[in-house]
Amino acid sequence: MAINPEVIARTALRLLTDVGLDGLTMRVVATELGVRAPTLYWHVKNKQELLDAMATAMYIEATGGLEAPGAGVSWEDWLADGARRLRRTMLRYRDGARVLAGTNTTHPGLFRTVELTLRTMRDAGFSVADAAEGYPALLHYTIGFTIEEQARTGTAYGEDNPYEPGRLERSIDREPFPLTASVVGRLFAQDTDAAFEAGLRVILTGLRTTYLR
User: Fold this and answer.
1) Side-chain half-sphere of 163: how many Cα atoms within 13 Å?
2) pTM, to two decimals
């Protein structure tokens, strides 16, 4: 098998299931590919470049086949669907959102997605400058929410996961904190799908009311 950045990135993404981001090293990836670690440095200079390549692979997976909104599809529905697709892609990989956060991706597929997004928002009445300011809020919400969601799987806690259903409720003293105790399930997103959709509505409403006056 020919080794190139895409092959290395896909191999690293598969390894996340077993080792997580903290356990992912160039040596681990090289061993999986049946080569020595120095061989990888011909293609990716360091772990940050490896993460960049992994993020690129996830972005391409999340945006594959993306087109402008069809007839009757609102800009809100189109942006929301894109956010859902990105979240689903990150959730396919252990620590997927942590991989994506803060990486540098310059693949043409990413710029095509950005261009479609800016065009869609411009056609809906946003200025291009406002779209460029507002869209990252949705992107950062999606990545940040998923980082938090994946962190609560309990991997770092082993068998003693404090986010197991019921444990948070039992840990709060209701007398001094009655309001917190009454909504702890909502505050800590035990139904993460519903919580993501609620936040999505807040972001999209904020974009509309802030920029489309």
Assistant:
1) 18
2) 0.90
